[in-house]
Amino acid sequence: MALRGETKEVLKKRLARAIGHLNAVHKMVDDEKYCIDVLNQLKAVQSALDKTAQLMLKQHLETCVVEAVKADDSTRVMDELWQLLRKGSDYNDEQNVLLPVKNKIEENKKNCCS
Fold it and tell me: N or C: more exposed end of the chain, with fewer CB within 10 A?
């Protein structure tokens, strides 16, 4: 089921808010703002996206998943949800990629944001 009606409008408003925050981050980077200020703005972007995803997931569970279960198609929707949840669990791969960055940060702590 596609997003429709009030839920669609709420999601679009939340996405517009996230886009506004992200545009602010882009400008802050161009303006060479203090790292912590940029990071705080990035947290606002992530929070806006997280809340949007939560709302969308809730809507999906209340409509698409319920309809699929009623149609005896629960295996498919459970597999979809499992794949979605697994996409956010690449923590170990990220740690391996970020290790050289972490080491470089330790070396440069004295020269923050310069």
Answer: C
Of 52, 23, 51, the C-alpha closest to 38 is: 23
Q: How far apart are CA 107 and CA 111, in angstroms?
A: 9
pTM of the model: 0.69
Q: Looking at the chain, how many residues does it have?
A: 114
pLDDT digit string (tens) for 1-54? 677 788 889 999 999 999 999 999 999 999 999 999 999 999 999 999 999 999
Please tell me the distance from the alpha carbon of residue 3 to that of residue 62, in angstroms, as a whole number.
12
CATH number of the structural domain 5-106? 1.20.58.1000
Torsion, CA 67, CA 14, CA 47, CA 87, rounded to 10? 40
